[in-house]
Design goal:
The protein is mainly α. Helices cover 82% and strands 5% of the residues. The termini are far apart.
């Protein structure tokens, strides 16, 4: 505590400057400070408990996410394997189709068939309109 001397300067009070009334006020002040500190500690403990529970929830959530990601990675790997097998089958069918086209005469036979279809269409039109 601070008081002022005869010159008006402030400085620390000595023990003999306290009166009995001041000591009661000091005890009340000290008791109030202790109560306030205990209240603050209690609030801090409650806040820490809340943070701890939040951290536990986040930990459980992250474990769940990790597990779900593991399942999805496994499904993606299986899907990739299936896609590779299907791609191989499609390549095989495409190769066999190309071989069959070459054996059947290729583009020449295709053009002959298209020309015959056009001629047949023209003949049908002539028959219907005459």
């Amino acid at each position: 505590m601070f008081g002022h001397d005869r010159k008006g300067n402030y400085g620390p009070l000595s023990l003999h400057e306290y009166s009995d009334d001041d000591s009661d006020d000091g005890n009340d002040f000290a008791s109030d400070q202790i109560r306030n500190q205990r209240q603050q500690l209690k609030q801090q403990d409650e806040g820490l408990d809340f943070l701890s529970k939040s951290a536990d929830r986040l930990g459980a959530l992250s474990l769940g996410i990790s597990e779900e990601l593991g399942h999805q990675n496994k499904m993606l790997d299986e899907m990739e394997t299936d896609l590779d097998k299907t791609t191989q089958r499609l390549d095989f069918v495409t190769q066999k189709t190309k071989e069959m086209i070459k054996r059947s005469g290729g583009k020449q036979n295709f053009l002959i068939i298209v020309a015959l279809i056009v001629v047949a269409f023209i003949l049908i039109l002539l028959i219907l309109y005459t």
